[in-house]
Design brief:
elongated, single chain, 22% helix, 1 helix
């Protein structure tokens, strides 16, 4: 199992220092989609730049999931 980190970013990143273990990067990316869905529930801030960024143990960005891809 590898540890993956899920930063949120809307200009400045909010770092995930704990991470979560997943067997595959595919599972970690699926988790980022779940996080983005939860964040969409907060209708107060519809910032097109808001994203969940998946990083591996070395800090390499594997995926960027936009929270509001259709926001103006």
């Amino acid at each position: 199992m590898r540890t993956y980190y899920f930063d949120t970013q809307d200009g400045l990143p909010v770092r995930d220092h704990r991470g979560i273990e997943f067997a595959t990067a595919h599972e970690a990316i699926g988790h980022s989609k779940e996080i983005a869905e939860r964040l969409r529930g907060d209708k107060r801030k519809r910032d097109k730049a808001l994203a969940v960024v998946v990083l591996d143990e070395s800090g390499t960005e594997l995926h960027r999931e936009s929270v509001y891809p259709d926001a103006p």
